Hints:
By secondary structure, this protein is α/β, with parallel strands linked by helices. The protein contains 10 helices and 10 strands. The protein has a 5-stranded parallel sheet with strand order 2-1-3-4-5, with helices on both faces. Strands 7-6-8-10-9 form a 5-stranded mixed sheet, sandwiched between helices. About 40% of the residues are buried.
Amino acid sequence: MLDIKRREFITLLGGAAAAWPLVARAQQPGQTYRLGGLFPSPREAPQNVAMFEELARSGFIEGQNLTIDWRTYGQRIELVSQFAAEPVKARVNVIAAGGDFGIRAAQEEMNTIPIVGFTDDMLGSRLVKSLSSPGGNTTGVSLLASELDGKRQEILIEAVPGLRRMAALADVDTTSRRQLQGLQDAARARGVELSLHRIAKGEEIAPAIDSAKVLNAAALNVLASPLLFANRPVIIERAASSTSKLRKRWVMRCRPVSCCARIR
């Protein structure tokens, strides 16, 4: 059984605002909690800083009653398992993990330490049994950004007058063929030809963007994916390099797990 304070700490990390007043009332002087972090982004990233600030407002203050043991794996997917094992040795009370890779690695290393995950679709990635009853020692937040892929495509088509060809980068592990077919059908209904470029690893991103350019794609939609988000610097750099050769100007619109671009 988790003590009440620890339950509230986990609930707070999961974003349940209703628990925050209870946390403040249930302070236990002298108790220090250890938070483990396993994310693709560094701890100074805005979204992570916001989490620490909310914890502080709720009474969990680093250096006083909170110790943070943070690991950033970025694009180094091969190191995720190693990083996930380190918080176990540090005896953290809770681990917050971001992205499918981080959450899955934490689950493989931890059977009893509570895991609070932040990713696109906890259920779709089979990280939990259900959203209402996740089971095991994992809970968290599903961003469900993939549900917005179609809407971003619509906005991109509207943003580029006369658009006839566009491309989409898709992660083979997070975007189903059915979803991709739906995007193609929606684009076709708008008189736009959509080329799909499925990515299984980071090394395939640059060649895929080059291929999209060969097909004369005038806009690029990067679908929701932890892999593609982790490699966004590569995507932006390659897109900028490709368009500079054509003396075009790209406008990038990035989201936590996706982005889209246009040439004008």
